[in-house]
Amino acid sequence: MSRDNDPLIRLGGLEKYFGDYHALRGIDLDIGAGEFFSLLGPSGCGKTTLLRVIAGFEGVDAGTVAIGGRDMTRVSPNRRPTNMVFQSYAIFPHLSVGRNVGFGLRKVSGDAAEKRKRVDEALEMVGLAGYGDRAAHALSGGQRQRVALARALVLRPKVLLLDEPLSALDKKMREQMQVELIRLQRQVGITFILVTHDQEEALVMSDRIAVMFEGSIAQVAEAEALYRRPIDRRVAEFIGVMNFLPASISDGVVEVAGLGKIVADDLQSTAATNGAPVAGFRPETATILFPGQDAPGRIAEGRIAEVVYYGDMTYYDVRLDGCDKPVRISMRNVFGRPVLEIGAQARLSWSPGAVTLFC
Amino acid sequence: MLRAYTLAFLVFLYAPIALLPIFAFNSGTVIAFPLDGFTTRWFSAVFSNRELHAALGNSLFVAVLSAVLSVLLGLAAARANIRYRFRGKTAAMGLIMIPLVLPEIIVATSLLVVIVRFLNLPLSLWSLIAAHVLICVPFAVAILNASFQALDPALEEAAIDLGETRASTFRRVTLPLVMPGIVASLLISFTISLDEFIIAFFLTGSDVTLPVYIWSLLRFPKQLPIIMALGTLLVLASVLILTIAEWMRRRGLARAGKNDSGGFL
């Protein structure tokens, strides 16, 4: 990731309405050259609309879109240095793979041999060398995805826009393509902007992530910061799993239901919420103590309500004394140590800095 | 039982058509069994009849122009219907489709009144073309609606994204992909116009079309075998056109890699 002082893309005060529906609300965002950036949010949050605004398929009611220092707000998509990989891939069914990839080269200068070379290079880059003469409709989902990538990258855009590109693939294929997309982005070195509703996908792939809700950006951060220091409860709930317990604050002392009084060291950060104060912690920041282990000042008692065994990991739902809703704890399985059973007594402890207070 | 019913149904449907060639080659002028003898006289009469040729020429002229105009209008209407949202769309589409269910006799009389009384235009093949476009457009729109419906809007966006203009996108992406629909609606419109009688009967002046000419022949019983010969030729032409249409349709499907979900044949 390299970020200059001048961002490649600068979005300022974007507003977009579809009739009465307020789709984008005051979007301000800078995206750097060579960055792998994700727009993450639940469906209907405006992430796809924002991507289409950057591509030029949607106009805006207010605000500006600048790409490479030039105002592109009213520039049509065919004149922007952006190319898109569509959710449906939009492979032209009446053209061969090679003609699909070479589709945009018609308006690019250069002779036929040179263009053919560019098509071959693009196909090789996505692992489809020698597929040029195949019929587009005879391809599998993963192959279509690669053709769509090659077709966009062959034009050497400054920005590649990806609209939920992996959502149509099965799990194995999706994980494989995630790795390939990261490799591809490093190889070509241009900015990738990915739209996804899958937080795991965003965390795995992106340099930075913008989390969107209801047409506005809630938080822009690197993956780890987003996970560790969510700005508010919505972000914390959307990214990964977080256990929430009612909390009360009096004279600067925080008391959490089920956990008891929390020492200052354990409070990692505070974040916003629109309800009553709650304390949150991630499943992997707590652990179930085994007989003989101790952790003074960081002990909570409870009973195991559910065990989900994943081979390398086990997820325990633990009902803490004084709490109705169980909290989820994830623990790495260690060879020679048995997995606990439902109903067993459990002493819970948590790491320093594990707790985020939402107040 | 079902088998017998199906057989009876097919006989009822196709036996009259099978009679056409039988009597077309029969030397007697009376259309009845037993047959007299074999002759190709009626076919030579068809090929030498000037009036018939003129009528056929008129019909082809009307049918070709009606089909082309209907499909052009149908393309615009279907694309607007599927791709855009605008006020009064439902009403507009409804009005376009109404001629489908409107009795032709009503269309014919009202158009006659409008053209002769209000517009003071002489009746010509052009007035007939206008009327045929009116009744063919709904068929073209119905077929092309399906074509545009099956077309992923992202395909057109992808073309624009890759540097094409709206016009070149239509040429390079939209047109090739809806081509099977265009061919199908051209053929349907052509066929409808070609055998349309009622409106043609009302709106043609001195230039009659083939159906109107055939109707006029019916008054002369001795000409009846000529109609049989002509009918035989028309059946052959229809089968040929349908075969071409179906071949085009299957080729279109194969190119787009879609599954066959019915068709003409």
TrEMBL record, chain A:
Keyword ATP-binding among UniProt keywords: yes
InterPro entries, A to Z: AAA+_ATPase (IPR003593), ABC_SmlMolc_Importer (IPR050093), ABC_transporter-like_ATP-bd (IPR003439), ABC_transporter-like_CS (IPR017871), Mo/tungstate-bd_C_term_dom (IPR008995), P-loop_NTPase (IPR027417), Transp-assoc_OB_typ2 (IPR013611)
GO cellular component terms attached to this protein's record: ATP-binding cassette (ABC) transporter complex
One protein family per Pfam: ABC_tran
SMART domains associated with the record: AAA
EC nos: 3.6.3.31
UniProt keyword annotation of Nucleotide-binding present: yes
SUPFAM superfamilies (UniProt xref): MOP-like, P-loop containing nucleoside triphosphate hydrolases
UniProt keyword annotations, A-Z: ATP-binding, Hydrolase, Nucleotide-binding, Transport
Domain ABC transporter: start-end pairs: 9-239
One GO MF term: ATP binding
GO biological process, one term: putrescine transport
PANTHER family per UniProt: SPERMIDINE/PUTRESCINE IMPORT ATP-BINDING PROTEIN POTA (PTHR42781), SPERMIDINE_PUTRESCINE IMPORT ATP-BINDING PROTEIN POTA (PTHR42781:SF4)
Name of the protein in question: Spermidine/putrescine import ATP-binding protein PotA
Natural source organism: Jannaschia seosinensis
Gene designation: potA_3
UniProtKB/TrEMBL annotation, chain B:
Classification via PANTHER family: PUTRESCINE TRANSPORT SYSTEM PERMEASE PROTEIN POTI
Keyword Transmembrane: yes
Lineage: Bacteria, Pseudomonadati, Pseudomonadota, Alphaproteobacteria, Rhodobacterales
Gene Ontology cellular component list: plasma membrane
PROSITE patterns referenced in this protein's UniProt entry, alphabetically: ABC_TM1
Chief location bin: membrane
Keyword check for Membrane: yes
Organism this protein belongs to: Jannaschia seosinensis
Protein name: Inner membrane ABC transporter permease protein YdcV
Keywords, ordered alphabetically: Cell membrane, Membrane, Transmembrane, Transmembrane helix, Transport
UniProt domain ABC transmembrane type-1: residue ranges: 56-245
Alphabetical list of InterPro entries matching this protein: Bact_Polyamine_Transport, MetI-like, MetI-like_sf
Membrane topology recorded in Swiss-Prot or TrEMBL: Multi-pass membrane protein
